[in-house]
Write a structure and sequence with these properties.
The complex is a heterodimer. In chain A, 0% of the residues lie in helices and 46% in strands. Chain A has strands spanning 4-7, 10-12, 19-25, 33-38, 45-49, 53-54, 62-67, 70-75, 85-90, 102-105. Chain B is built from no helices and eleven strands. In chain B, the strands form two sheets. In chain B, strands 2, 4, 5, 6, 9, 10 and 11 form a seven-stranded mixed beta sheet that branches. A four-stranded antiparallel beta sheet of chain B has the order 1-3-8-7, with no helix packed on it. In chain B, strand 4 (33-39) and strand 5 form a beta hairpin. Classes of the chains: A mainly beta, B mainly beta. At the A-B interface, strand 5 of A face strand 5 and strand 10 of B.
């Protein structure tokens, strides 16, 4: 199985900060990578797919980049609604696997 | 609007079986696959398996082979997940999700908490 790691595990930031989260895959996943946001008690919410394509309705302050084994999620200017946990997921082959998550807090 | 509504919380004894449902609406059920995932407390999300809602093909994670079955009722736009021989390690929050091929999980159910305890 492809192992996904993320760094950092926790990130303390302020409103207006630029935030970058890194996701690494143990094997080449091409660009078949998605990012999700999850808030306590809620289901995950798809932010980005195919590494860099924003899901409909996702604010443009979110962006994704990378390919192969290293990927980043950037939040251009952190907003109060962005304090949440973010995780990556590859979908190049079964089993799809997920990163452990990065908690963004104040 | 797409909705995936899961069945309610369950408490099961070790060794029992579990059936969860995922009722969908707002789209053509047969045009997309439904996946089942879970999050064991303190662990990352884990993919369990999926069903092709057009033809009923399924694929399961090796970890659940032999005790996981995913089915569908097209007339009810509902997918089901059956998990047998439950153990305490199956205590988790279970999700169904609609996959858009090569685009990730666009829609999720609300999650179903399953507790396995004697």
């Amino acid at each position: 199985d492809i192992q996904m790691t993320q760094s950092p595990s926790t990130l303390s930031a302020s409103v207006g900060d630029r935030v970058t989260i890194t996701c690494r895959a143990s094997q080449n996943v091409g660009i078949k990578l998605a990012w999700y946001q999850q808030k306590p008690g809620k289901a995950p919410n798809l932010l980005i797919y195919k590494t860099s394509i924003l899901e409909d309705g996702v604010p443009s302050r979110f962006s994704g980049s990378g390919s192969g084994t290293e990927f980043t999620l950037t939040i251009g200017s952190l907003q109060p609604d962005d304090f949440a946990t973010y995780f990556c997921q590859h979908y190049i082959a079964y089993p799809f696997t997920f990163g452990p998550g990065t908690k963004v807090d104040i | 609007q797409v909705y995936l509504v899961q069945s309610g919380a369950e408490v099961k004894r070790p060794g029992a079986s579990l059936r969860l449902s995922c009722k969908t609406s707002g789209y053509s059920f047969s045009s997309y696959s439904i996946h089942w995932l879970r999050r064991v407390p303190g662990q990352r999300l884990e993919w369990m398996g999926w069903i092709n809602c057009a033809n009923g093909d399924t694929r399961y994670s090796q970890q659940f082979q032999g005790r996981l079955t995913i089915t569908k009722d097209t007339s009810a736009s509902t997918a089901y997940m059956d998990l047998s021989s439950l153990g305490s390690e199956d205590t988790a929050l279970y999700y169904c999700a609609r996959e858009i091929i090569s685009c990730g999980y666009q829609n999720w159910g609300q999650g179903t908490l399953v507790t396995v305890s004697s």
